[in-house]
Amino acid sequence: MYASYMNAPSSSYRGDKDIVLAMFSEFMFNNEVFTSIFEEKNIHWADDIDTAATLVAKTFRKWTFTMDDYQTLPPLMINPDEEGEDLIKDFVLKLFRKTILNSEESGKRIAERAQNWELERIAVLDVIILKMALCEFMEFPTIPVKVTINEYIEISKEYSTPRSRQFVNGMLDKLVSDLREIGAIKKTGRGLLE
Questions:
Q1: Same-domain check for residues 94 and 49
Q2: pLDDT digits (tens, 9 = 90+) for 101-112
Q3: Predicted confidence (pLDDT) per residue in 29-50, tens digit
Q4: Does a structural domain hold residue 82?
Q5: What is the DSSP letter of 68?
Q6: Is the Cα dihedral 18, 19, 24, 25 positive or negative?
Q7: Which parts of the chain have pLDDT scores under 50?
Q8: Domain with 113 in it
Q9: Which of 24, 132, 158, 180 makes a 20 to 30 Å CA pair with 33?
Q10: Does any domain span residue 78?
Q11: At what angle do helices 87-101 and 124-139 cross, to 10 degrees?
């Protein structure tokens, strides 16, 4: 790629962007020294590296010939609805707040179902994952139960202990049964009625 770029009869803005992205990938992103610097700053860098690389690539691709050094970077989160509100941000804030507000009650539900386990002995991240899932089951009527279960199992696989997947899966099945029994899950919308 570098030879064809250097030997090209003329240059183009797109070609320049492509070569910068290629150099970023080869000399920075895949460079052990470069990545170790970020790992020293943040232990979660290994989890975030793919997202960071994607954001860098998107930023380069969106850059146009008319932009200069003072051009503001594009926002990290863009998903506005018709009124211009950020749906993802609103969802995250609502989930966070409702999970915190219902934390004590959710903790009791989890403790009742975690046979032979005290809440303090369960991995903290697993407890948080279960509390968030409980919140989605009861507070977000348009999210299907199966989607919530699948998402939180994936989160536990990615971010918690090696055994968390089975634990979270089993606990969510029990908790959904309990919530359905008392009528606490009320889904609305096409195909969501329980």
A1: no
A2: 999 999 999 988
A3: 778 887 788 788 777 677 667 7
A4: no
A5: -
A6: positive
A7: 82-84, 191-194
A8: 87-181
A9: 158
A10: no
A11: 110
